[in-house]
From TrEMBL:
Transmembrane segments: none
Record-given protein name: HutD family protein
Length: 175
């Protein structure tokens, strides 16, 4: 955001030339503002508070609903309108020439096989995770687990029907 909010980087990967291949951040949107443009970057925005965020672009608009991924290209001018109170959003940005991200939301217990890079972020409720090599741990809201190069299946257990876990799988693209 161009000075109209606060962005905190959660995780990123920078290549040997200093280019950001991917970045995951948490931003607080506070009022109407224009998003920074990032040519060659795909963006996924997930509102993590219980508010929708309306995104506008020259060719229309997109409503990002709470805990639902909204996709848009970073090349385009995009702005928010009608933000009535500070709202937190998770941003996933990937450089198209290097990688791609798949963002999904788990609503019930499941088993996942991690992508080469995989982040799990608890949005609501509590989630317990374990695997053959990881002892059982609990994720609380806005806490996460970063898995890099792990291939064993991870068991995820939610504690309530309204629990939500954001899964971010990042894979390299063929060059």
């Amino acid at each position: 955001m161009n000075g109209a909010g606060v962005t905190r980087t959660i995780a990123n990967r920078i290549d040997s030339d200093g280019n950001v291949d991917w970045r995951i951040s948490l931003a607080t949107l506070d009022g109407s503002a224009r998003f920074s443009q990032f040519p060659g970057v795909d963006r996924i925005l997930v509102p993590v508070d219980n508010l929708s965020v309306e995104l506008r672009a020259q060719d229309g608009h997109l409503v990002a609903h709470p805990i639902v991924p909204a996709h848009f290209p970073g090349d385009l001018p995009v702005w928010t309108t009608d933000i009535v109170r500070p709202t937190n959003v998770l941003n996933v940005m990937t450089r198209r020439a290097a990688c791609r991200a798949t963002v999904s939301v788990a609503t019930h217990s499941r088993r996942v096989t991690p992508a080469p890079t995989h982040l799990l972020i608890c949005a609501t409720g509590q989630w317990r995770f374990s695997s053959a090599s990881l002892s059982t741990q609990t994720l609380l809201p806005m806490h996460g687990l970063w898995l890099d190069g792990r291939r064993e299946e991870i068991d995820l257990q939610s504690d309530a029907l309204d629990s939500r876990l954001i899964s971010i799988a990042i894979e390299s693209v063929e060059r």
